[in-house]
Amino acid sequence: AARLSGAENRLVSLPLSRIRVIMKSSPEVSSINQDALFLTAKATELFVQYLAAYSYKHGRGKEKNALTYSDLSHTAEECETFQFLADILPKKILASKYLKMLEKEKRDGEVGEGDEEDEEEEDEDETVGEDVGS
Length: 134
Description:
Main location: nucleus
Pfam families: CBFD_NFYB_HMF (PF00808)
Shape: flat
Helix content: 55-70%
Keywords: Acetylation, Coiled coil, DNA-binding, Nucleotidyltransferase, Nucleus, Phosphoprotein, Transferase
CATH topology of one domain: Histone, subunit A
CATH class of one domain: Mainly Alpha
Radius of gyration: 27 Å
Low-confidence stretches: 117-134
Mean pLDDT: 78
Protein name: Chromatin accessibility complex protein 1
GO molecular function: DNA binding; nucleotidyltransferase activity; protein heterodimerization activity
CATH architecture of one domain: Orthogonal Bundle
């Protein structure tokens, strides 16, 4: 297989060997053309640059003169273009807040299950009442 020339390899910042490994991890991929590898690397690099620039511009980066994780997670959550990244870049929360959220969800889930059981019992009571009345 033809290798990328040194000049082409310098046009991308991401390690091509790592991108090749990621691409080959897909069961549908049997071989990777060098041009496809280069284009995937370059497209990924441009996407990351765009995400960083957008997050910096629309986040608090200008105030601090730095790009932070919270800028990236806010962009993933608020911008429709980047919403597919919301699971990958979740907002950071304190462990104590997360545990409280889990506790609340568990309580809400138990209350919801209890309501369904009450409704089923009421339905059974109505059915029994109808049989007695006939």
